[in-house]
Prior knowledge:
Elements: H1 3-23, H2 25-37, H3 39-58, H4 69-86, H5 91-111, H6 116-138, H7 141-150, H8 155-173
Helix pairs in contact: 1-8, 3-4, 3-5, 5-6
Amino acid sequence: MSLRLAELLVGISLVFVGSVFVFRRKYCERFLRKFLRSEFANTATFTLAGAWFLGHVLTLRESDFGQYKYLFFIFFLTIILIALVKIRDFLSVRGAAIFAFLLSNELLKAAYMQPEQSRLILVTFVYVMIIAGMVFGGWPYKGRDFVNFLFSRPTRPYLFGLLVTCYGILVLTTLFW
């Protein structure tokens, strides 16, 4: 993926998500509260994130313990299956955190060895996403706490959506630098 494509996709995604928070706050609240405890969201996010991760395991080279990639594959597949069966609480948050890490990897690869001016805005967002993935992946109940905090006052989702939309527009403006 090129840096321009990454900036375009991230910018459009941020503008869309931010706009939904600005104009459809009640819908966002309902969706996020259901997402935290939904069996379907648990299975879907964790399965898709696990499949993406296992795809990375299968592409390991010799310098990255590639001679053990099939053992790693079986080991991590077993962990994913056990988690899907035994750990049902906030599994969707953990799956979203894994997605954040894997997506961060792709976005950082796109920004690697590009001029600083053009990649700085995107990379800043990526590092915020990595930190959020670490917090919510390590303490998934913080996802519930964040949703409760965000929707405890009527202006917070609006301001959050405005911030995300403005940052998405900033990312999109980097396409013209």
